[in-house]
Amino acid sequence: MTAEEFDRRFDDGEDVSEYLDWSSARRPGQEPKRVNVDFPAWVVTGLDKEASRLGVTRQALIKIWIAERLEKV
User: Fold this and answer.
1) pTM (2 decimals)?
2) Which end of the chain is more exposed for a tag (fewer CB within 10 A), N or C?
3) Cα(73)–Cα(71) distance, rounded to whole angstroms?
4) Contact partners, residue 54, CB within 8 Å, separation at least 6
5) What is the tens place of the pLDDT at every residue in 4-19?
């Protein structure tokens, strides 16, 4: 199938998933990168309380807060 044919089928709303190799799909700029940060115990306690209140993990809470802050930059 040509790229033009693929594009036409996609634009027409056809299911083109059978033509894609999802095992190699990547989201540019979304690759995880590990970062280690040391916090005082009182910060960790506060994070855990807020994460519990919101029903998310500590890691998820930190990611949300940092992402929200960076959106404003």
Assistant:
1) 0.61
2) C
3) 6
4) 61
5) 999 999 999 999 999 9
